[in-house]
TrEMBL record:
Cross-referenced InterPro entries: Cyt_c-like_dom, Cyt_c-like_dom_sf, Cytochrome_c550/c551-like
Protein name: Cytochrome c domain-containing protein
GO MF annotations in UniProt: electron transfer activity; heme binding; metal ion binding
UniProt keyword list: Electron transport, Heme, Iron, Metal-binding, Transport
Pfam families per the UniProt record, alphabetical: Cytochrom_C
Residues of the Cytochrome c domain: 64-152
Superkingdom of the organism of origin: Bacteria
Amino acid sequence: MSGAHPGPPAGPRPAPEDRWFTRRQVAAFAAVLAMAAALGTAAYQTGGRLAGTGGGAVVTAAAGSPPDGRALYAASCAGCHGPDAAGALGPALRASAGWRGADFTRAVLEGRTPDGRQLGAVMPRFAAVGLDGSAPTQAQLDALHAYLKTLP
Ligand code: HEC
């Protein structure tokens, strides 16, 4: 009974992994951090590019350069009136391209033709739905009208 081994310390012995991170855990943690940093950088760069595009558009609009009638038409009208305004779901816009500016504007904004006819409900009332994400401006309507006049 002499020379007894020292007993275990009183109280629960902490498991080794509770005391400190193992080498493996530290390495794994570092790898995750590195990956997060890489992803974060990529996301940041993408965001910067997107923000750059938006900023450019805002600057262009703010600088007062005229709206692009062709782009407006492609984005907001071509789906129904056809890529060349030759007609699809909606009629060809040859005739209306020749309307006076105020008449064309009223048709696009309020859906009313020069002879007082209400256009069918399929034709959006752009005063209500907006053009290019915001309330249509006269400059946009003029640009659209001018673009339609260039079509053969
Ligand atoms: C969702 C489909 C749709 C979209 C988008 C659309 N239109 Fe129309 N549009 C129509 C339809 C359908 C008519 C015919 C309605 C009728 O005659 O009752 C029409 C009629 C018109 C007319 C009257 C033509 C005429 O000779 O009577 C004009 C002008 C017109 N659209 C311009 C535009 C412009 C400009 C845009 C884009 C800013 C546009 N439309 C977007 C469906 C659309």
